[in-house]
Amino acid sequence: MTPLILHHYPQSPVAHKVRMALGIAGASWQSVEIPRLPPKPLLVPLTAGYRRTPVLQIGADIYCDSQNIAQAIDQSAAPHRLFPDQTYGMAMMISNWAETTLFDLSVRLVLTHALGKVPEEFIRDRGSLYFESNWTEASLRAALPSVMLELRASLGYRHHYYLFQELSSKQVLLIQMDQYRTLLCFLHSLH
Predict the structure, then answer these.
(1) How far is Cα 118 from Cα 98, in angstroms, rounded to an integer?
(2) pLDDT over 50 (residue 145)
């Protein structure tokens, strides 16, 4: 079996999610720790310029973005499937909401509160990824009440139940969004 190699750094919440997926799948994998901030001279040439974390390597194949990585893990020779019984579509829909809307708002909130408390180069680097191109500390602070309202509205979906997948004529798999939100908040609190 071709080894799975995860290029990551320990503090990344997205890398943590991928490490958890590798564990759930029971996959054997190797770790390559990469720098938290650019430059990333060994990663960027491998990924043709992609600089985000994590990146999964399986032989000569490179998988960027956690959704692509999850699919690659699921299709690998790992002992357990991540998406049994055709749940891939719904899992990716929920993951997309969590990794775009929820994550982006959470990053804005966390980084705005971190202004003056973490190294400026870290804020500048992440700001180039998550904020508008002409952002300033003042504009981030001014937008904070709006960001908090958007995040609250996004998390308000926790009162709904969603049908994931009909497994048989009598059995359905449901996920309660409050439980999923709790998991996401836990993962985001780890970094």
Answers:
(1) 25
(2) yes
The whole-model pTM stands at 0.70
Give the whole-angstrom CA distance, residue 1 versus residue 73: 13
Decide if pLDDT at 30 tops 90.
yes
Structure-block tokens of residue 71:
């699919």
> Tokens 């937008």 appear where?
143
**Which pairing describes strands 55-58 and 4-8: parallel, antiparallel, or unpaired?**
antiparallel
Given this model, what pLDDT does residue 167 score? 33
Each residue of 40-85: pLDDT tens digit? 999 999 999 998 899 999 999 999 999 999 999 999 999 998 888 7
At 116-135, the pLDDT tens digits run 998 888 888 888 888 888 89
In single-letter form, the type of residue at position 104 comes to: D
Ordered structural domains, the chain, with CATH: 4-82 (3.40.30.10), 85-189 (no CATH)
Run of H or E residues at 32:
strand 29-33
Do 101 and 154 meet the contact criterion of CB atoms below 8 Å apart? yes
The alpha helices in 26-136, defined as continuous H runs, are 43-46, 66-75, 88-97, 103-114, 120-130
